[in-house]
Design brief:
The protein has a four-stranded antiparallel sheet with strand order 1-2-3-4, with helices on one face. It has one domain. Strand 1 (about 85-90) and strand 2 (about 95-100) form a beta hairpin. It has about 130 residues and is an alpha+beta fold. The longest helix has about 50 residues, at about 15-65. It has two helices and four strands, in the order αββββα.
Length: about 130
């Protein structure tokens, strides 16, 4: 069975077509992935903010009951709700400063540590500003 040129049917993709598709996929990934990482980091940062707010509310309830933030019965969770941040306090009878430190699952160079004081002052350490982090 001899087939001439007009009877041959080409099937499959050429290398050029395949490379164009690979290039387009790579371009889309290079645009979408950084945005995805920023969204995930922001969501984890929100977990730290929630942890600080929960701890602050616990300390305020304690102050209402015992008239001191550093009373022995005053306690709060040592981690944020999802566990992305460790929550620590430095407290005196009438003031406190809470600090949320990122754990291994949360790498955030923009906002390394988040802070909250008894006066409601929000702070951060890192390359970002308070507006970026809160």
């Amino acid at each position: 069975m001899n087939m001439n040129k007009h009877q041959k049917h080409m099937t499959g993709f050429s290398l050029v077509e395949l490379m164009v598709v690979v290039f387009i996929i790579g371009l889309l990934v290079s645009i979408a992935y950084p945005s995805y990482v920023n969204q995930v980091t922001g969501a984890k940062r929100s977990d730290g903010q929630i942890g600080l707010m929960n701890a602050s509310q616990s300390l305020e309830r304690c102050f209402t009951e015992y008239n001191a933030y550093n009373h022995a019965n005053c306690g709060f969770a040592a981690t944020s709700p999802e566990g992305h941040y460790a929550i620590a306090t430095v407290s005196a009878a009438t003031t406190f400063t809470l600090t949320a430190t990122p754990q291994a699952t949360q790498v955030d160079p923009l906002c390394e540590n988040l802070t909250l004081t008894s006066a409601g002052v929000q702070g951060e350490t890192g390359a970002g500003t308070v507006d970026d982090c809160w």
